Amino acid sequence: MVYMQSHIWKLFCIVMFVGLFILGFFTYELKNQIDSRYELEQENIARVISNSTNKMLSQYEVTLDVLGEYLIKDDTYKDIRKSKEMFKKLLKINPSIADFSLVNPNGRLYVTSIDKSIDKLPNLLEKKETKNSFEQALKSDIIVLGRTYFHKTLNTYIIPMRKVIRDKNLNILAVMVAGIKVKDWHLLMKSNNIYISKYKSFLFRDFDYYMQLIPSKNKHKKRYYSTNIPEKYVHYIKTLIRKKTNIQINGIKSKGVILTIKHKRFIDNQEVLSSIEYLKKYKLFSVVEIPYSIIKKEFYGRLIPVYIFFLLIGTFIFFLFFQLSKMVIKNRKKLEHQAEHDYLTNINNRYYLSKKFDYSKLSKSFSLMILNIDNFKNINENYGNKYGDMALKEIGRRLYKIKKEDDILVRYSGDEFLFIRYCSGKKESVKLAQKIIEALYSSYSIDLYKFSLGTSIGIAEYPNDGENFESIKKYADIALQEAKKKKNCYMFCDEKIKQKHLRYSLIEKELKTALQNNEIYMMYQPQVRSDGTLYGVEALVRWQNEKLGFVPPDEFISVAEQTGMMVKLGQYIIKTSLTEVNKIYKETNKRFQLSINISVKQFEEITCYENLLNMIEHTGFDKSLLTLEVTENLFIEDIELVLNILENIRKQDIKISLDDFGTGYSSLSLLKKLPINELKIDKSFIDDIETNMDAMKMVEGIMLIGKQLNMTILAEGIEKIEQKNILDNYGCDLFQGYHFSKPLKKEALLDFI
Ligand code: C2E
Ligand code: CA
Ligand code: CA
User: Fold this and answer.
1) Which structural domains are found in the chain, ordered by start?
2) Which of 136, 205, 458, 742 lies deepest, with the highest CB count within 10 Å?
3) Residues with Cβ within 6 A of ligand 1?
4) Whether pTM exceeds 0.85
5) What whole-number distance in Å separates Cα of residue 674 and Cα of residue 118?
6) What pLDDT, in 10s, does the model give residues 264-310?
């Protein structure tokens, strides 16, 4: 899930990255597109302007040529009146022209349309502003423009034009001069449909970079016309051109191309896009420019909505992913909760324990309690699983109430819970255990049923009882087994319990190889009639181990039962007993009863009955001489199944004896149902039969029941003649005990017989 969540954000990043990439690409393309559109448009305009400038200048040239030649021819210019009349006529036809003058090659005026005395007008070769261009005009065959200046009387800017007039031998006769009104030039442009407000057109001359013409509404007019373009700036422009086209400026001049560059204006540092064309004939640069801010405005005007759109989409996608990730987190938490909690009680489960509890790093001391509900099985059996579940839920609730913040509470299995508390000492553990027992004991009312439940608790403490979690858990488990014997109590894992466990483990280990090492053998204890004659023997198993010495059967039988070794051991016992006793029959030529103890675990084996019959057949033992001793706890489990097996056994003429009678829970009604031949009164009643009235009454009762149900009564554990006598008086049929004989090895039994 974490993996998935991180992937969601990775995916989001990819989506955003792709989006940004597309956006970047779009921005780049848009800029290129707008730039080149403006460039193209501007270059077209520049071409038109250049053409019309060329056209206008050559028209003026023709006018000046014609006029000049008219004035020179026959010295017409000397006739002032005639000249002025001609001037007047031409000025009327060409309103863009402010004045005409005819100047001699030395700069002195011959005649002029200006209403001023010629003497008062300056020599063009002597005046600083005019000298350069006049000299140029003398060297040139075409029209040469002078510096644009402000004409006070006409209140307008004037561009002077000079054109040399030559004779047939190309000798200079005079220079024809005219002033063109800048205002009218603009009007002319306008009439040619090439005046577009956002584009501005400039004209400056090549040889000294003085401005010839600037847009009519330019606020820097005065500065433009009075200074030439600074050298530094020219250099800057040249560098830009070289960078863009890789051509030197002279190359461009000769090729007559239009070149567009982005640069900063020298006058006000404003960024502009300029298209420059060189008018080769008149040695003029024609420039059309547009403030770059206009292009930028259009660019941003189109870009910003797209960015806003992207931002909106991005935000939307972000929220989408945010929701998705929230959902994933929620799902993960839910799954985590499910994985870590028990579905029924909603308290933590084993998985949580393995995940949250760092077994390898135990540092703080803690107390581990394993809780087991006493006889919980009965609830399921008596009321049904539904009520069992409800009870478990209630148990979970009660335990959860006791749980503190850093306690660990886990439903370990069915009715087993695990409680870990970080605490310092036994006192605190005792308090907690008592609290738990009390809380779980108080009455449960589920639907119409009311009951209470006992709890057995096994407690082990870290670090007192073990150095790792596994051993602590094991000791708590051992303590629990002890507590379960008493029920509704807690038990610490003390040294005695630990020793017991140690021995248990040792027995378990050694028992595994006991049979193959021939450590197991049988002894037989005689059972006699009232008159002392031999009735039969009880086969009793013995184990002599190298490490453990003699291990009493009570001890190792229970280990065998709990560790699954009983079936194999039981088979060995039956087979050995049948074989050995059969041999004694043959050797002594006497027949007597053989009692064999059968464990509950042997009955649980499905093939138990078949195995028994097989062994009897195999040894050829007389079935009617065989008694199987069973205990009452056999009937705690599936009574129908057990009854079925017992009845089958009875049909085979094998007898059944109920061992340790009186210590278990069997009732008279149950006893009536059972196909039993013999009741064995437990030794504990016999021990104090002489002194204890209760024991005596109990024995009397058992006798009565037995007689009533037609059963043989056998008393075991008789050590004194007095005990035998009392039992004899009650009518006991058979007797067994040290008074008659201890269990004997088969050789000793032969002697006994
Ligand atoms: P149990 O079946 O009640 O066996 C009788 C026990 O009482 C035997 O102890 C026997 O030696 C002892 N006993 C008999 N008379 C006297 C007496 O006068 N005084 C005293 N103090 N004890 C007497 P044992 O052999 O130690 O067996 C103990 C228990 O071990 C048996 O109790 C039985 O439950 C189990 N056991 C023994 N052998 C086998 C076996 O072959 N199979 C099974 N399944 N269990 C066996
Ligand atoms: Ca027995
Ligand atoms: Ca017994």
Assistant:
1) 27-293 (3.30.450.20), 350-493 (3.30.70.270), 507-752 (3.20.20.450)
2) 458
3) 525, 539-541, 552-554, 557, 573, 597-599, 629, 659-660, 683, 716-719, 736-738, 743
4) no
5) 163
6) 988 888 999 999 999 998 999 999 999 999 999 999 999 999 999 99
